Amino acid sequence: MSSIIKFHSSMLSLHSSSSTCSLKSSVLPKKSLSFSSCCHFNNPFRNSNFVMENQSFSVLSASKSQDGAVIQDSSFQGSESFFRSVLASMEAVYLNKNPTAKAILELVHSADGDQICYDHFAFRTFGVNGHGVDSMSKFFLDFGYKRREELRFPAKKLKAFWFSPPKVSTSYRGSGVNGPLPRIFISELLVDQLSPEAQDVIKKYTDISRCGKEYAALASAFGSLTWEKPSYSEFQQLARESEYAAWTLVNGYVLNHVTISTHRLRSNLRSIRILNQFIEENGFNLNSEGGILKVSPDSLLLQSSTVADSTSFEFSDGITEAVPCSYIEFAERLVLPQYKDLPTQEVEEFHRRDGFEVGNADKIFESTSKDQLTRRAA
User: Fold this and answer.
1) CATH for 255
2) Residue 128, domain member (yes or no)
3) Taking Cα atoms as reference points, which of 48, 15, 41, 77 lies closest to residue 220?
4) What is the pLDDT of residues 265-298, one digit of tens each?
5) Is 225 a domain residue?
6) Which among 92, 100, 96, 117 is positioned nearest to 17, based on CA atoms?
7) Which residue range forms the structural domain that includes residue 178?
8) Strand 146-153 vs strand 294-295: parallel, antiparallel, or unpaired?
């Protein structure tokens, strides 16, 4: 519990913005989008009204039996409003740095209605000196998430775990972080499989970070690195060997992407194929690696994503260059075969395909690759 106490005490005096993210679409009726705070990058809690509440909510973690019944398997005590405020701060940093994600959320919101649900949040980490999956997952595990399957990506020298959300006792019917809690997907670079030179660069900065790994979620909520800025030559050295490594060196624990749950939309955009067409018609480029639509072998998990935005980054040696930041993903989870005859209005999330797929995720990772960014620039 010591790490929770430290984290909470760090956050008690902070304030999260509740200002409105509003980006107008030139092609659709103008509506304001209110997901969560849109904050200044250096301090996402500035000018806020995040107040720590004394009320404590009981939250239940749910899993499924073979017949799909929901089973209570654990509980946690904590402030749900606090937890969602942290998610909102992570989201705010992400939206502030990634105009494409903000624009697409506004676009979908204008066309579909008030409710957009997130399928999952994804983070990248360095698998060295305690800075890997465990550094970020501890925050979610403490609040009732459950670790599920491991995924391996040998060619990229990565592994990942996904985490299922707790079943909350309070009723959240809003959009984004105020809707159903998202799954969490956390990957880590298997640093010991890189060249000695690349390992030295990564270990240099994770050593500088020291106890920063204990505050990965806090770093994500602030959009801050837990190590010092690297030099441009070190960034280039990692980029030549691992795009993932270079991305993580300059972005740290910030959200790599959020994912819209398309089947929870209300219009015909609930079909990911229609949504993909809609997004491209409005001038956004989708990740083409392995095809625009990534389909799992069982054909029940359909995914696509945009190409990452880029942002200017000033390196420690004074050089300023564009580096890839984040992107937005879309996922449609189809109904499992045993529930195919269930009336549409009775279908719930546990009736649908759960989990993740290595083949899909491997191609989604390419959203931040030089090949995809170059294609978009062209």
Assistant:
1) 3.10.180.50
2) yes
3) 41
4) 999 999 999 999 999 999 999 999 999 999 999 9
5) yes
6) 92
7) 76-374
8) unpaired
